[in-house]
Specification:
With about 325 residues, this protein is of the alpha+beta class. The chain has helices at about 10-30, 60-65, 255-260, and strands spanning about 40-45, 50, 200-205, 205-210, 215-220, 250, 270-275, 280-285, 295-300, 305-310, 315.
Length: about 325
């Protein structure tokens, strides 16, 4: 058997996971994908750095596990306490689950995996997700998908064997960019390109613009128009319906239960929601017996601040 707090295998796996996450994360950020918060730097939604975080990231797990023995019977002098970019004290309340031959977690009912900060899933080889019905990801701010790829191989596939494929930017622009060819093919029916204001095709200085019921065909060289016949008759038009999108409505409900457990007198106290960016009051009410506020409905994602009671209590 191993010594007390033996964790060499778990430590090596955790260090390898951190190394892979940092390596691919740095590559992705260099290619304009979103930055990964592996630690110790805190990352803002706009990918900017926001100081250091002692915990809540993968580097904390690796450093805290390495320092686990510090102050215990096996390291009373604390020699294993970590230092450097992410200093960690020993004997932190960690749960480390490790098995050299594999781990299976199974249930016939639902299974919940939740994290108060970051949830890191790292595989040195493949990550396989299979569902019998639906695969749903609901994200509050950003989705960033990046693949380093292999030269001359297909790097990203999105395939639907049946049914439609919809890609929508419901309140802003949509960009499709390729270093080489862009091919759009309809195998059996039509290709429809529709715009409310303008369609512009341009290459080599020549362009065709469709705007305001007019068509401009301009070029610095030759215009070649060939056909068995040409029908130049009077005006005609076609109206094409454009889709309309509902404005997103987000909801937020702040849970002050941890605060009310140590300060039960706060239950039943009044609270006020504020916009953290502008300071504008959004909603007020009273905490229920469980320490929950009412649910607030907002257009878009906002930074919210709640003040509870008559003192300086503040929950972000």
């Amino acid at each position: 058997g191993g010594k007390q707090l033996a964790r060499e295998h778990a430590q090596s796996q955790l260090d390898a996971a951190l190394s892979l996450s940092q390596s691919l994360g740095d590559t992705a950020a260099a290619q304009l994908a979103d930055s990964m918060e592996t630690g110790p730097d805190a990352i803002n939604p706009d990918n900017g750095k926001d100081g250091n975080k002692d915990s809540g990231h993968l580097q904390h797990h690796a450093a805290a596990l390495k320092a686990w023995e510090a102050g215990s019977n096996t390291d009373k002098e604390g020699k294993t306490a970590s230092s450097g970019n992410s200093p960690q004290a020993g004997q932190q309340p960690l749960l480390i689950l490790s098995a050299p031959a594999g781990i299976a977690s199974l249930t016939e009912q639902s299974q919940t995996l939740s994290a108060g900060s970051n949830l890191n899933l790292v595989a040195q080889r493949d990550a396989n997700h299979s569902t019998g019905r639906r695969w749903l990801h609901n994200v509050g701010q950003h989705i960033s998908l990046f693949v380093a790829g292999v030269k001359d191989k297909v790097a990203l596939k999105l395939i639907a064997a049946k049914g439609k494929v919809q890609v929508q930017a419901q309140s802003d622009a949509l960009e499709l960019t390729a270093d080489k060819d862009v091919t759009i093919t309809s195998c059996k029916e039509r290709i429809v390109v529709n715009a409310k204001q303008e369609i512009l095709l341009t290459s080599g200085g020549a362009y065709i613009r469709l705007k305001g019921g007019n068509i401009e065909v301009h070029c610095p060289g030759t215009v070649s128009v060939k056909g068995a016949s040409h029908n130049l008759s009077g005006p005609a038009s076609m109206d094409w319906a454009l889709p309309e999108y509902k404005k997103i409505t987000c909801t937020e409900q702040i849970d002050a239960q941890l605060l009310t457990e140590s300060h039960p007198e706060l239950c039943g106290n009044k609270y006020v929601y504020y916009c953290a960016d502008t300071g504008n009051k959004l909603k007020s009410g009273t905490l229920d017996a469980n320490g929950l506020t009412d649910r607030i409905h907002l257009q878009g994602i906002n930074n919210i601040k709640a003040l509870i009671g008559s003192g300086k209590w503040e929950i972000l």
